[in-house]
């Protein structure tokens, strides 16, 4: 079954071909139960057994005519983590429930790759789908990192150096860290799915430990990102994300990557975000191999009560260079922005147990926010977008005086709110044009 998707891109047309496996219902599948999976048992022995059973199911599917791995409906399996390599033409059908073990001390602290509960690498033609649930039990991990400042949390999914990837119709929630980290991928479609991180639990936890600032702004984000892709030819559409961090964050590629030396040709569209920290570019630190993001489109996105909606961020570093260019935000709607509707500039960051290395979380009330000279930002367009009922200021556009941002366009950008901090954008070292926008950025 061939799945052809054509997505409109800012300067070209992206043609993504996703080759999915045969429809699961027509196949004999390799069930986790066939390899000794133990359902509905929440203990270490069962979790390790289920990790081994799931690994065996993938190995069997990858070496037989029946190429579907099944988590059957009406079952729940606790597990630790799996590492799977070199899959070809495999479907992962999750109709039951997978639950990541919250026995933190039983997890490894070091691996030869990014730690994840579900780790897949060097795959071709891989589908993840189903009517079931993957639950990360993130709360216990969030408590642990706040109390100890030791952060060895796994991501839910890490998928790297894979092509022809299709993820759809699956529900994931409460990952210990990122939900989907897609690294150095090519020809990817992510669609028709939901991602949920329990905002109430996170807010209560941060508030209890003094980590929720004025206006309910987290001064230590828990890094429960939704989808973080890097690579080439990616379409993300019709996703619903409720979390306390970046909804979609495009990460950079460089000359050391396999499929592209720049993250490029991506479209993120027709999606809804609640309590997120933006449809995001970055962060992008400088790199000796030149970190790069270009040709990215976000369109038809709605936000409810975001901390940020549009977010483009560099990162500190004094070795190498980077580039962010040709980014389009079109038809973006945000209601009730808690902090900044638009932020383009240095990343605001502070990790537990450290004084922080970037821009102050209270900027511009606290004006400590060093800019990045090594990562220029250019050709950013915001078109036909509306931000209403904001609280602090319309936005921050903050670039370096030696290497200013260039080629910015704000057309028909309406940005209204209470504006407790200031009425205009904080705007420095940005060259651009604006028409029909209210208020217009004062440095354009």
Describe the protein.
By secondary structure, the chain is mainly β. 9% of the residues lie in helices and 47% in strands. The protein contains 3 helices and 28 strands. The chain has helices at residues 44-61, 138-148, 199-208, and strands at residues 2-8, 13-19, 30-31, 68-71, 76-79, 82-85, 88-94, 97-100, 116-121, 124-129, 133-135, 155-160, 163-168, 171-173, 180-196, 227-242, 248-250, 263-274, 277-284, 291-304, 308-314, 322-335, 340-346, 377-390, 395-398, 405-417, 426-428, 430-435. The chain has a 20-stranded parallel β-sheet that branches. Strands 17-19-21-23-25-27 form a 6-stranded parallel β-sheet, with no helix packed on it. Helix 1 (44-61) links the parallel strand 3 and strand 4 (68-71). The longest helix has 18 residues, at 44-61. The chain is globular. Mean pLDDT is 90; it is low at 1-26.
């Amino acid at each position: 079954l061939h799945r052809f998707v054509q997505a409109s891109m800012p300067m070209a047309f992206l043609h993504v071909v996703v080759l999915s496996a045969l429809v699961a219902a027509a196949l004999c599948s390799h069930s986790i139960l066939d390899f000794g999976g133990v359902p509905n048992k929440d203990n270490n022995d069962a979790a390790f057994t289920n990790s081994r059973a799931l690994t065996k199911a993938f190995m069997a599917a990858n070496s037989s005519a029946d190429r579907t791995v099944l988590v059957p409906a009406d079952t729940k399996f606790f597990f630790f983590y799996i590492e799977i390599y070199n899959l070809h033409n495999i479907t992962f059908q999750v109709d039951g429930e997978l639950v990541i073990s919250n026995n933190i001390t039983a997890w490894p602290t070091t691996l030869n790759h990014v730690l994840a509960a579900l780790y897949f690498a060097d795959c071709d033609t891989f589908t993840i789908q189903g009517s079931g649930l993957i639950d990360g039990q993130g709360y216990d991990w969030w408590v642990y990192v706040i109390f100890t400042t030791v952060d060895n949390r796994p991501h839910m999914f890490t998928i790297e150096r894979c092509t022809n990837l299709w993820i759809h119709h699956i529900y994931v929630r409460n990952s210990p860290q990122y939900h989907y980290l897609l690294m150095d991928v090519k020809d990817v479609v992510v669609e028709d799915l939901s991602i949920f991180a329990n905002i109430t639990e996170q807010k209560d936890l941060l508030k209890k430990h003094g980590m929720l600032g004025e206006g309910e702004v987290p001064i230590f984000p828990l890094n429960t990102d939704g989808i973080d892709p890097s690579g080439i030819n990616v379409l993300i559409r019709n996703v619903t994300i409720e979390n306390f961090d970046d909804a979609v964050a495009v990460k950079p590629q460089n000359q050391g990557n396999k499929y592209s030396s720049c993250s490029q040709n991506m479209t993120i569209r027709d999606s809804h975000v609640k309590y997120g920290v933006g449809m995001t570019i970055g962060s992008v630190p400088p790199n000796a191999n030149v970190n790069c993001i270009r040709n990215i489109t976000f369109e038809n996105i709605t936000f409810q009560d975001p901390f940020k909606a549009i977010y483009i961020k560099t990162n500190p570093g004094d070795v190498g260079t980077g580039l962010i260019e040709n980014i389009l935000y079109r038809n973006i709607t945000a209601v009730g922005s808690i902090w900044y509707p638009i932020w383009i500039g240095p990343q605001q960051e502070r990790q537990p147990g450290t004084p922080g290395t970037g821009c102050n979380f209270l900027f511009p009330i606290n004006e400590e926010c060093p800019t990045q000279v090594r990562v220029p930002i250019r050709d950013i367009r915001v078109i036909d977008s509306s931000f209403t009922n904001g609280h602090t200021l319309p936005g921050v556009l903050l670039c370096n005086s030696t290497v200013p941002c260039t080629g910015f366009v704000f057309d028909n950008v309406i940005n209204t709110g209470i504006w407790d901090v200031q009425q205009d954008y904080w705007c420095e070292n940005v060259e651009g044009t604006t028409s029909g926008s209210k208020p217009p950025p004062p440095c354009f």
